[in-house]
Amino acid sequence: MALRISRWLGLFVLSALTSLSGAGTAAAAAPDELRVMAATSLAPLAGELETALRRQGGRIRLTIAGGEAALTAVADGEAEAALLTRALDDNEATRFVGRIVGHDSLLLVVHERNPLDDISEAQVRAIFSREFSDWQQIGAGNAGAIVPVRRGLASATRRLFDRAFGIGNVMPVGAVELASNLATVLYVAADPQAIGYVSAGAYAQARQRGLRIKALRMAGQAPDARTCADGSAYRLCRPLLLVVRKETPARRTAALAAMLTGPLGEDLLIRHGFAPAAAR
Quick one: which of 15, 82, 83, 227 has the fewest CB in 10 Å? Predict the structure, then answer.
C-alpha cells in the first residue's frame, strides 16, 4: 500500500509542476516584437521555433498557455498571434483568421505491458462510456478493471474526442480526469490498466523520454499525425493553426508563417511528432 501511495503522490507532484511550468503569463514585449502564445501541447516545438527565428534576426516573444487562454489573449490584444491545435468554430471564424501550418492527431495510448495493439471505434466508445469496464471484454488476452483517462469538460481535446465517438459529458464511475497531455502519459505509464488519449506530439516526446506507453492502431489505421496529413478518415485529426485577428497585417506574422511552412519548420514538426501542412 505504501508503494502505491508513493507512486501516485509522485505522479501528482509531477503533474502539478508541469501545470505550473506551462501556465506562464505573457512577458512584456520589446517594441516591434511579435507576441505569440502557443498551446501547451506545442511548447517544445514552439520553444525551438522561437530560438530559430531569433537566430535569423526575428523579433518574437513566445508564451505558453492553454489553447483557450491563447485565443483570448489574441482577442484582447495581449498577443498578436496564437498557435493552436484545433480548428476555429463558426463564431471564432468571424473574428480570426486561422492558417493551417501542420497536422496533429490524438492517439489512444496504453501501457507497454497491455497486449492490445489494435482497437475498434465501437470498443473505444464502450470503454469511455463505461459499457466495458474490464479488459476481458475487449478480448485481447488481458484482464482487470479498465481505467479510462479523460480530459476536463472545458478542454478542446476532450470535445474532439467525445464528438468523434458520440460520448456524452457525464463523468463515468471509475474514470480519471486529468488536465494535460503530460499528466495523461505519466498516468498511463504508471498504470497498466489505464487507457487515455494524447496529442501525437506529446506521444513522441513521451517515447523519447523512455516512458512505457504505446499507441494503439484504430481499425488498422496507423496512429500517426501523417495519417491526418494524408487526408484519411481517421476520426481524431486536428489542424495546427496560426491564428490572428482579421485586422492584423499579414506582414506581422509573415516570417513566422514562412518558417513554419518552410523546410526548417517542416523538419521541426516531424521531429516533434506532428506532420507538415503539405505531407511529404
Answer: 15
C-alpha–C-alpha distance, residues 209 and 204, integer Å: 9
pLDDT (0 to 100) of residue 111: 96
CB atoms within 10 A of CB 39: 28
143 and 97 inside one domain: no
Q: Are 176 and 149 in a shared domain?
A: yes
Which pairing describes strands 118-119 and 217-218: parallel, antiparallel, or unpaired?
Answer: parallel
193: cell is 490498466
Nearest to 145 by CA among 107, 173, 103: 173
In this structure, what is the dihedral angle of CA atoms 157, 163, 167, 173, given to the nearest 10 degrees?
A: 10
Q: Which amino acid is at 129?
A: S
Among 58, 7, 3, 8, which residue's Cα sits nearest to residue 30?
A: 58
Q: Are residues 113 and 88 in the same domain?
A: no
pLDDT tens digit string along 62-118? 998 888 889 999 999 999 999 999 899 999 999 999 999 999 999 999 999 999 999
In this predicted model, what pLDDT tens digit does every residue of 144-202 receive, in sequence order? Answer: 999 999 998 878 889 899 999 988 766 667 789 998 899 999 999 999 999 999 999 89
H/E stretch holding 227: helix 225-229
Q: How far apart are CA 219 and CA 117, in angstroms?
A: 10
76 and 253 in contact (C-beta within 8 Å)? no
Q: How far is C-alpha 172 from the chain's CA centre?
A: 23
For residue 40, give the CATH number of its domain: 3.40.190.10
The domain tally of the chain equals: 2
Q: Could you give the CA distance from residue 198 to residue 203 in angstroms, rounded to a whole number?
A: 7
Cell numbers for 238, please give them: 486536428
